[in-house]
């Protein structure tokens, strides 16, 4: 394994994954905090803070940040999730000193200018409105709120206009200090990077006093519920969720394989039955989402409104059938697809850097590709049946249906088919 994890005296963790034949590199500074660390009154602040970092950091303005990175042939980006916030630069070989300097400024020294803050609030209000207008975005937000009702995981990462507008520079700065403590950070580089140079640069750029670490997010639990939203649309959008396992659970890869067999590709049960054989859905898939301590198995279907309930019943029937046992070759195909997904992602320096940072935040260690492949290959048909039985024994589901009135019973049809 080329990647190595280093622990600095400050508590900062640094991962270096040199790839000698590459002419580009990726550098990520990943914060092990996101929307899940917000209070209800702070909903949307993690995403707002990510935006504000690009409006000026260190001695550079927003324009100067962009020009400096692009002058090195680089690209800069960021993303906010429930449990992580990631700042990323991809650039040509030789651009590492600038990349470390800029990402350190974004994370540790954003200027949080009051005028820029007010402008960015307006931008985010438009983003919130745009998501509300997009049916295939809105339906996932509705389902998430049902699966984790009354919890940070059930709130939109974008937040609400009211709570975003409540943030001022001082409050947002205090939020950053608590969430972006050095102990919550991982600096991860992959590609055309020199390990010794990276460590020296990071120690210099991230030097300084460390503030107190903010509290960890509260434990989460799956809640059952149904949301429906009638809109004058030709198509119905349906999301069906069942309680799964978290990313640290020993059944994590079992969950991933179950989702793959159920609806992960063109040979999957849902695609073949609901789309190819019955023609009920124009798009349908299953997925697994594993947070630190909890997870979900999800199904998304887009269908005609009149077909939504029947599609949900087919989803339930295929889930039950898979829980009773995988067909010949089904588990092997799912394993091949999952390994291909993991390994193909490693062809990208950015994906390698992000994957290593995620492993460090979750497990405080790195895993080799062969170790991950072994864990996937070790999953048995009995493991898949046990996971399926666990889903059904929970006896609860969350759902969201958005579309014409004729579709709104789909969530209840799914529950009736599964649990009677």
How would you summarize what this structure contains?
With 420 residues, the chain is of the alpha+beta class. It contains 16 helices and 13 strands.
CATH fold-level name of the largest domain: Cytochrome Bc1 Complex, Chain A, domain 1
From the helix content, strand content and strand pairing, which structural class follows?
Answer: alpha+beta
Task: Supply the CATH class of the largest domain.
Answer: Alpha Beta
Architecture of the largest domain, according to CATH?
2-Layer Sandwich
Radius of gyration: 23 Å
Sequence stretches where pLDDT stays below 50 over 5 or more residues: none
Gross morphology:
globular
Question: Sheet with the most strands?
Answer: 6 strands, mixed
Tally of separate domains: 2
Number of strands: 13
Q: How would you name the CATH homologous superfamily of the largest domain?
A: Metalloenzyme, LuxS/M16 peptidase-like
Q: Multimeric state of these chains?
A: single chain
Calculate the terminal CA-CA distance, rounded to whole Å. 50 Å
H and E order: EEEHEEHEEHHHHHEHEEHHEEHHHHHEH
Approximately what portion of the residues adopt beta-strand conformation? 15-25%
Average of per-residue pLDDT values: 96
Number of helices: 16
In spatial order, strands of the major sheet run 1-2-8-3-7-6
> What level of helicity do the residues show?
40-55%
């Amino acid at each position: 394994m080329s990647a190595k994890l280093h622990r600095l005296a400050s508590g900062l963790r640094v991962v270096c994954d040199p790839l000698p034949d590459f002419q580009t590199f990726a550098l990520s500074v990943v914060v092990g905090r996101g929307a899940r660390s917000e209070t209800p009154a702070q909903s949307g602040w993690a995403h707002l803070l990510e935006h504000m970092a690009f409006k000026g950091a260190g001695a550079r303005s927003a324009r100067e940040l962009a020009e400096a990175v692009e002058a090195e042939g680089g690209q800069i980006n960021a993303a906010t999730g429930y449990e992580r916030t990631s700042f990323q630069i991809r650039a040509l070989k030789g651009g590492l000193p600038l990349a470390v300097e800029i990402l350190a400024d974004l994370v540790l020294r954003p200027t949080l200018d009051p005028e820029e803050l007010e402008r960015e609030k307006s931008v985010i209000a438009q983003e919130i409105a745009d998501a509300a207008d997009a049916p295939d975005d809105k339906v996932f937000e509705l389902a998430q709120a049902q699966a984790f009702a009354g919890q940070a995981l059930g709130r939109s990462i974008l937040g609400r206009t009211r709570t975003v507008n409540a943030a001022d520079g001082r409050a947002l700065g205090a939020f950053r200090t608590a969430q972006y403590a050095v102990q919550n950070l991982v600096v991860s580089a992959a590609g055309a990077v020199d390990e010794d140079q990276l460590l020296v640069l990071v120690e210099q750029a991230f030097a300084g006093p460390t503030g107190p670490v903010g509290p960890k997010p509260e434990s989460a639990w799956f809640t059952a519920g149904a949301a429906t939203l009638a809109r004058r649309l030709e198509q119905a959008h349906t999301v069906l969720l069942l309680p799964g396992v978290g990313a640290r659970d020993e059944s994590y890869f079992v969950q991933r394989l179950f989702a793959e067999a159920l609806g992960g590709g063109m040979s999957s049960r849902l695609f073949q039955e609901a789309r190819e054989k019955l023609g009920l859905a124009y798009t349908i898939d299953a997925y697994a989402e594993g947070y630190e301590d909890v997870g979900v198995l999800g199904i998304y279907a887009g269908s005609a409104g009149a077909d939504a309930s029947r599609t949900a019943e087919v989803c339930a029937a295929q889930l039950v059938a898979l829980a009773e046992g995988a067909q010949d070759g089904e588990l092997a195909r799912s394993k091949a697809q999952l390994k291909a997904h993991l390994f193909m992602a490693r062809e990208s320096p950015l994906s390698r850097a992000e994957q290593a940072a995620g492993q460090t935040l979750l497990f405080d260690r790195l895993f080799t590709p062969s170790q991950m492949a072994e864990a996937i290959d070790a999953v048995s048909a009995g493991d898949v049946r046990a996971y399926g039985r666990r889903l059904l024994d929970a006896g609860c589901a969350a759902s969201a249906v958005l579309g014409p009135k004729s579709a709104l019973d789909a969530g209840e049809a799914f529950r009736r088919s599964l649990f009677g």
